[in-house]
Amino acid sequence: MFPPIQDPEIWHRGDEQLIGIAAYAKAQMTDKRWRHTQGVVVAAHVLAHRHGADVRKATIAAYVHDVAKCWSLEQMRARIAAHDAHDPILDAPPSLWHAHAGALAVHCDVPSVDEDIVNAVKYHTSGRVGMGLLEKVVCVADYIEPGRHFEGVDQIRSEALHSLDRALLLGLSHTIRSLLAEHKHIYEQTVRSRNDMLRIVYPG
Amino acid sequence: MFPPIQDPEIWHRGDEQLIGIAAYAKAQMTDKRWRHTQGVVVAAHVLAHRHGADVRKATIAAYVHDVAKCWSLEQMRARIAAHDAHDPILDAPPSLWHAHAGALAVHCDVPSVDEDIVNAVKYHTSGRVGMGLLEKVVCVADYIEPGRHFEGVDQIRSEALHSLDRALLLGLSHTIRSLLAEHKHIYEQTVRSRNDMLRIVYPG
């Protein structure tokens, strides 16, 4: 399904904005997280093209979606609290903080990004009720990038080519099932997003 | 684990209050629902005794926990809306209405019941954050009564003898897993209750 992962400087030769954004993201990540990011970029590119989303925005959002993932928890908390000390995300499991902290960082650090991209970063882990097309593209790309190897991922890959909503329903359901099996907290927003997809995929 | 199910008039001979409450519940149910109710009464009796809950209150709550289950959806909705037209339960799946409608009915129709019993009826399906002992007894009894035959029920039965919290964590997790598999809406309160049990069972 996906072409081989390439270096941004080769893939985007001559496009200083994309090369700059890729370098901005890479500088804040481990090598492993960068390889995952490259996978999400390729998957988001394919999905955006397939489903009529803005391919450039999808590429940018994919590069920066995990920009805060390798920060310390303290760094994430401080970033979120500086913006809003009462942000309810701070009561959610810390595994979700990176998406919100990353969205705040991207909004400040990369002036050329718009609200769609910021929201795609902010909701890439939990989803939300009423997700936009770009948000769906990045969220699904994060589930199916070539480096993912969980049970059921191939079914999500194959659904993703036809329906982002069905792919998201499968992906979010997989997340909830995994959290149950691993005895971890289930974030309510993940459940609301999954219920919203259920309503869209199986209306009435 | 459970003694054979008996007729309330035999089991509670001479106890007009219990016989009356059993008859009140039975009169509003199908035979199948009544057999389930008798199972929950026996299970709640055993669990209450085992975990130091009020055995009489547990018995009463078990008799009436499904008192509204065989009502029409319209009857449930009308009962809830008459009490509070904006009750958020009316936005939840109708499969949850019977617990709230039943709690309202029991509160009005059976003057001898107290708040603990009403809450045990109200939260017997979804649970809630900060459940009381009687609520846990009835909720677990509903999962493990002798007529239940789902995958994993024996593990819940065996946990229930040692820890209501562990049994509830298993039971609520089973409910969420089933709703995922059956492509049904997951009520957020069920997730909140499960997360609360997770916090209690695996603190820190």
Describe the 3D structure.
Two copies of one chain form a homodimer. With 204 residues, chain A is mostly helical. Chain A has one domain (8-201): Hypothetical protein af1432, CATH 1.10.3210. Chain A is built from eleven helices and no strands. The first copy, chain A, has helices at 8-11, 16-26, 31-51, 55-64, 73-83, 97-109, 115-122, 133-144, 153-160, 164-181, 188-201. Chain A is globular. At the A-B interface, α10 and α11 of A face α10 and α11 of B.
Compute the number of structural domains of chain A.
1
Which structural class do the helices and strands of chain A define? mainly alpha
Largest protein-protein interface: A-B, 16 and 16 residues
Cα shape of chain A: globular
Structural Rg of chain A = 16 Å
Q: What oligomerization state is this entry in?
A: homodimer
Give the uncertain stretches of chain A in residue-range form. none
Tally of DSSP helical segments of chain A: 11
Helix content of chain A: 55-70%
What is the beta-strand fraction of chain A? under 5%
Query: Residue-averaged pLDDT of chain A, rounded?
Result: 95
The CATH architecture of chain A comes to Orthogonal Bundle
Largest sheet of chain A, in brief, is: none
Topology pattern of chain A, helix = H, strand = E: HHHHHHHHHHH
Please report the first level of CATH classification, the CATH class of chain A: Mainly Alpha
What is the fold-level CATH name, i.e. the topology of chain A? Hypothetical protein af1432
How far is the N terminus from the C terminus of chain A? 33 Å
Compute the number of strand runs of chain A. Answer: 0
